[in-house]
Amino acid sequence: YLFSYRKISATSLRQIIPVQVTFYGLNYMKALNRKKLNDLFIAETSQFTKNHSKSIALLERARQSMPNGVPMTWLMLYNTFPAPFVETASGAYFTDVDGHSYLDMNVADMSMCTGYAAEPVVEAINARMAAGHQFLLPTEDAIVVSETLSERFGLLFWQYTLSASTANT
């Protein structure tokens, strides 16, 4: 989801993307135009930097207190451009601090597959938070959730963790 919003013309794409050519029954690939590709990359990088100035400023600030300026190092490992800093989210979309909205095709690594800030979920969380949470003791809520999951998925018993670290041990 970290692509520039600028539209790239078909002509520009044809100048950098290989073209398949058939000659006497053999297929040949026209080589990439590396200069055009580099020029396009420089232009896109410039446009990205211009369009994401608040995220980039937050990244610089975050580098003073977090390695690589992000809460999880892998966030910087696989992206050419810095990850956008998220401000809000609703449904299947999130909006970064620069005002760009994204359809979250990653759905937060599947932890948000029902979307962000669904009203019934927000209401249930608010009610639980107001009544207290994280007791390290059983609650009736755990029974209701387990019964509902058993009914839906046919597994008799359910256990819960409070973090991914606990889940992996």
Distance between the termini: 32 Å
Share of residues in strands? 5-15%
Cα-based radius of gyration, to the nearest Å: 24 Å
Q: If strands are numbered along the chain, what order do they take across the biggest sheet? A: 3-4-5
Q: What's the number of extended β-strand segments?
A: 5
Name the overall outline: extended
Sheet with the most strands, sense and barrel status? 3 strands, antiparallel
Mean pLDDT: 81
The helicity comes to 25-40%
The computed structural class is alpha+beta
Which H/E pattern describes the elements?
HEEHHEEEHHH
With helices defined by DSSP (H or I, 4 residues minimum), what is the helix count? 6
Written overview of the protein:
By secondary structure, the protein is an alpha+beta fold. The protein has helices at residues 10-16, 34-51, 53-62, 119-131, 140-153, 164-167; strands at residues 20-23, 26-29, 86-90, 93-96, 101-103. The strands form 2 sheets. It has a 3-stranded antiparallel beta sheet, with no helix packed on it. A two-stranded antiparallel sheet has the order 1-2. Strand 1 (20-23) and strand 2 (26-29) form a beta hairpin.
Question: Quick gist of this model?
Answer:
The chain has 169 residues and is of the alpha+beta class. The chain is built from six helices and five strands, in the order H-E-E-H-H-E-E-E-H-H-H. It is extended and about 70 Å long.
What order do the helices and strands come in, and which of them pair?
Blueprint: H1 10-16, E1 20-23, E2 26-29, H2 34-51, H3 53-62, E3 86-90, E4 93-96, E5 101-103, H4 119-131, H5 140-153, H6 164-167
